[in-house]
Amino acid sequence: MSLPPLSPEQLVKPRHFELRISLIFATLFVPLGTHLPYFPLWLQAKGFHAEQIAVILAAPMFLRVVTTPLLTALADRARDRADVYVALVASALLLSAGYFLTPTYAMMLAVSLALTIVWTPHSPIADSLALSGVRRFGSNYTGMRKWGSISYLFANVAGGFILSATGPGAVPVIIFVSLAAALAAGLLAPRLGRPRRSSPLSATDIQQSAPKLLNPYFLYFSIGVGVITASHAFLYGFVSIYWKSIGIGDSVVGLLWAWGVVSEVCMFMMFTRFFGAFSVVTIMMMAGVGAVVRWIAFPLVWPLGLGVAGFFGVQTLHSVSVALVLIGLQKMIGETISEERTGAAQGIAYFSNGFFMAVVTLASGPLYDRFGVDGFFAMIPIALIGLILIGLAARSAPQRRIGR
């Protein structure tokens, strides 16, 4: 017995679908592009030491690995995922005002914990909306998602120059204003209704050939992605502090972060032409190898006298260790997971990313306190473990893909 087809309303492509989703991605990544590189600098400026910074960064990650899958699964069951997105962005805007309160350790930890519950699901729900467009209307995912990377790039560069002029105190203001812009864009999000449940396969075929979310391939792949991603925790938590400690100014720090995103955008633009025919396992293996090379090179740049140019060179590997992970994960979900489970699959993948990122971030504070930049060497075995898990996924890869 075949599953019910799309409703007549779901067969109609919303006007300017790609433009509206691109706008969501563009506004979504501005606050993220401010928080990741500059929030640790703001915490340091408020007098917090490395271990306290690590806890403030890591504790929300542990919480969100529980709350994000629940909220993304709830979005799948809602009348429209766009409405859930708008509610979460509005909540994040209100909670981000907590960073204007007196910055005690307990207060900043509490605000960060509350904020992460409603902030982290933004990206997987936006991805879920974009992937519905890919399935129903043949939209190009990378064509829409690249605007998120471009806006992230803008936030990196603009944030660096703003901080050079005003100091780290501007960070909470930038986050608040950019979340307000994300709310405005969310109100324009295309309404798609509930995820489709139709498939070119019969219900029996789906039960037999469509992998369940807890099958070995999906689990090994998702955990492997999470571990490779987690090897970036030391970079995300402490590289801005390290760059500042060796005399690199805020504007250059912003440009260094931005250069990594430039390379990411370039990968999004050229992926289909040069890497579109590769399997998702091969793509993820390349990403893992890129991460290993990056963590070997990073601590050697300054001692070898390569200067800021050397850091720009290493940041180019962002196109491999990060961009290929982002694309490969969505490619795997699009090929092997039916649409009615897409939000849940996104949530499980983010659970994996968040849990391992939290563990490594928590360890990164003591690592930086004791070893400084040499803490990057500890990220190498983490990336290697991720590669092993991707290899195990390859051995249990499904033989059939899910059709549109």
Topology:
Elements: H1 17-45, H2 50-77, H3 81-96, H4 105-119, H5 122-137, H6 141-166, H7 171-186, H8 203-209, H9 216-230, H10 233-245, H11 250-275, H12 280-297, H13 307-315, H14 318-321, H15 323-336, H16 342-371, H17 379-395
Major β-sheet annotation: none
Q: Provide the succession of SSEs.
A: HHHHHHHHHHHHHHHHH
The global form is globular
**Individual helix count:** 17
Helix fraction?
over 70%
**Content of β-strand:** under 5%
Instruction: Output the radius of gyration.
Output: 21 Å
List unreliable stretches of 5+ residues.
Answer: 197-211
- Category by helix and strand content: mainly alpha
Relevant terms:
transmembrane helix, mainly alpha, 17 helices
Report what the structure shows.
The longest helix has 30 residues, at 342-371. The chain has helices at residues 17-45, 50-77, 81-96, 105-119, 122-137, 141-166, 171-186, 203-209, 216-230, 233-245, 250-275, 280-297, 307-315, 318-321, 323-336, 342-371, 379-395. Mean pLDDT is 86; it is low at 197-211. The chain is globular. It is mainly α. It is built from 17 helices and no strands.
Q: What is shown here, in short?
A:
The protein has helices at residues 17-45, 50-77, 81-96, 105-119, 122-137, 141-166, 171-186, 203-209, 216-230, 233-245, 250-275, 280-297, 307-315, 318-321, 323-336, 342-371, 379-395.
